[in-house]
Structures are given as structure tokens and as C-alpha cells.
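Hi everyone, sorry if this is the wrong subforum. Our group has a chain we'd like a structural model of before ordering constructs, and none of us has done structure prediction before. Sequence below.
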Amino acid sequence: MTLDLPVIRAQFPALNRDAIFLDNPGGTQISRQSLERINRYLLENNANHGGAFATSQASDAILHEAHQAMADFYNATHPDEIIFGNNMTTLTLHISRSISRTWQPGDGIVVTRLDHDANVSPWLLAAQDRGCQVHWVDFDVEDGTLKMDDLQKALDHKPRLLAVGYASNSLGTINPLADIIPMAHATGAQVYVDAVQYAPHGPIDVQELDCDFLVSSSYKFFGNHSGILYGKRALLEELFAYKVRPASNDLPDKFETGTQNHEGLAGVLGAVEYFEWLGKQFGGEHAEGLREHGYQGRRLHLKQAMRAIRAYEFELMRALLEALESVPGLRVYGLTDPLRLGERLATFSLRLKDIPPRALAEKLAAQNIYTWDGNYYAINVTERLGLEASGGMLRIGAVHYNTLEEIDRLRSALHQIAA
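Answer:
Right subforum, don't worry. Here is the predicted structure as C-alpha cells:
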């Protein structure tokens, strides 16, 4: 069964307006399930952690359920492997201090020029503090893919850690983690994956990937503003935690410093429940091989949902690429080969003639088409492409609640502006 877009869009209250949301790589609209979980928490369970009374106990039950839900979403082995925080950036800055505590002067780390800076600067700062060397991996400026030869050369230095993205928030490239992670582990490096951009578009299985850490943000997958880190349990248990003295040393409390955003965790639970609903409603034809792989219950429905989303977004990608390439004077950066759509997301960055990206975004906004401009914190990408000084690029990103009709409206608007 293909996605029923009117039914899907009815799950998003914000879509009930004359606006086309193509700013999704910067943050998606919230699902009804996430919103209802937040409201219900604040009205029925609002209390601090660990109390002897009813609302505190009900609150703790919700928090545990949220950890279990994200363990299911990532296919982690245990809810204790899930750490919540304000956002991906804050979590990475926090955990990088613990991870780098044992690094020694002369040790090395590897970062890439394709990544969001939240998976670059925390590691640069940690390397600076510990006297470590930084090895950079470049990307091909023609197709936006990581240079695997560069990666191997960097790994030959036997670094302590490789920080790499699941997908580029700028060019939409999906990195071949199934190849990259074994390469890194073969040299003794731990692997820290930024999955923020990939999470709303495809299934994640941290056990199959065998990554050491992986992090995403729920406001990018139809929830509220919250960050969610996965770490292998053995690694999290052995890491030193920077925390206050009365806080528990048990996971996940060890790294969830202070009082958490409890209603936010409830919202993340609701976002996962949205995916579960979608998998039950529309994922039936996408179940092949999943049960044999060991998925069952909610984990099965989540993987069905992400397969259904990925299949529909292929249609959006094809339509979006065709629309963009039909506009005179428009250049798309990154992969544009229709036969390689499996290597990218429906996230496209572009320039149109000599129009500054901000001016182009404003012209589209005047027609109620929402896009993003600049570097989107992937500053190494815009610098490498020679575009940072001139305003970066315009970014257009579709998700599964977008329609082909919206792509047609975008095409018409771009043709009008180009003329």
C-alpha cells in the first residue's frame, strides 16, 4: 500500500495552511501524536524524577517508555543505551569531553568536510584540549561523496575516533556506513555517527551498523526539540561522566545531567508512536525479510514505516530533481545522476544564476514556499565549494508529507524567478 497523503498530512496540524514546507532539513513539522504526548504529560504527569508520589511515578514511567521507544527506533539492545539531551550539538559537546578524557598527546582523530559542524567542532575542541592530531577527509566537489581513499589514508594513522555523518544535511549524500565503520574498527577507531539528517528518511539499526555512538534530533523526525544519543552499553558504562555528586552512576542517569525536559521526552515517545502508526497503516508491503531479520512488535512496524517513507521519497526525489534541472541557470550541487538516487536524500542545495541565496529564499517565501539559505552549519561544505563568502546555497528538502503538487508549485515559482 502506498502512502495516503491526505491521511498522512492530517497527522500534522501545521500543514493546515497555504504554505509549502521545504525547509524540512532544518526542522520538520510536529506530528499530532508528539504534540498530544507533550500536552498529556504536562496536564497529567508533570513532576520531578524519583518521587514517592503518584505524578512522579507516572512521570518516571513515561521517561522509561521514551527510552524504550528510542531503543526500538535505533534497534539498540537495551533502553539504558539511550541518552537524552537538549539537542545533538549539546549532547555531542557533552559526551566528547568524556570520550576524549583518555586521549593522549599525539593521538589522532578523523573528521570530514562533508559533516555538519556539530560533528566537527566538538572533536576539534577535544583534540585541541588533549594535544591530538586532526586528520581531515575531503569530499568530491562534483558529486558530493566522501573520498574513500582519503578516508583510508586518514585511518592508516590509527586514530582514536572517526566522526562521520549518516547523511549530509547540505548535499543530501548518504555515506556508505556499512563500508566505513568496519574500515574504522579495523584500525582501532571508535565511530561516532551523526544521524540527524538521515533519521526522518530511512531505517536505522545500530546493531547492524555496529557503530559505537549515534545521535539524532527528534525535531528533524516529526517531534519536538530534543537530542537522542545511542552508545554501546559497555562503552557508556566505562566512560567517565561529568556530573553533579548526588546523581546516580547508573545508566542512563549517569549522562542525563540535571532535570531533563520531561515533556520533551514524552514528545519523542509520541514521534516514535507516529512512525509505529504509519508502519501499521502503510507498511504491509514493505515487510519482506524484516521478521526473518529478527524485528518484531514495534521494531517491526518502525522498520516498515521507514521503508514505506523511503519508497515514497524516491518519487519526490525524482520529481524534485527533474523540476530543478528544468530551470534555466540553476545548478544543483551534489549527486544528480537519476541512477544514483539510492545514495542520497531528497535534500538539494543549489544556486540560481547570480541571485544571492537569501534573496532567492525571500522570493520563494513571498509565494509561501519555505526554504533555507546559507551554510546550515555545514560550513566546511560551503567553504570547500567556494560559496561561503557569497551567501552559501539555497536548500530545498522534502519529506514524506510533501506532495508532487507542491513540487510542481516550486517548479513554477523557480521558472518565474529565473525569467
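For your construct planning: The chain is about 40% helix and 15% strand. The chain has a mean pLDDT of 97.
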